Amino acid sequence: FTLIELMIVIAIIAILATIAVPSYQNYTKKAAISELLQAAAPYRAEVELCIYNTNSTTNCNAGSHGIRADAAASKKYLKAITVKAGVITVTGQGSLEGISYTLTASGNAAQGVSWTVNCGAQSDIFPAGFCA
């Protein structure tokens, strides 16, 4: 091969890499987000039980009424989970640093519990239809 041919091949590889790397990083973030979604599941069930038992979200806080204490940095991508007055806040770390979402419970024992999800500005990383 001549030097020009090698330079052309290197230029083509560089162009492909500039396209592929950001797409790959976004793909890995979308794969990692599943850890944050799964981490909130037990808290969600516990908050629902608290609402059915107390008939309100007011006293549904972490560490009380059967809701486990706040979690901190227990997984690779999970920085913290907090529960206050029926609002579950999940915060990411590592490649998910700065990404968080909240699950807000509303309702009572008679009407049932409904959830509102707020993903903030980074809603494109969450599965379709997850963020309200």
Automatic annotation (TrEMBL):
The keyword Membrane applies. Pfam families: N_methyl, Pilin. Keywords: Membrane, Methylation, Transmembrane, Transmembrane helix. The chain crosses the membrane at residues 6-24. SUPFAM superfamilies: Pili subunits. InterPro entries: N_methyl_site, Pilin, Pilin-like. One of its GO terms (cellular component) is pilus. GO terms for biological process: cell adhesion. Belongs to the N-Me-Phe pilin family. This is Type 4 fimbrial subunit protein. The lineage of its organism: Bacteria, Pseudomonadati, Pseudomonadota, Gammaproteobacteria, Pasteurellales. The gene is ptfA.
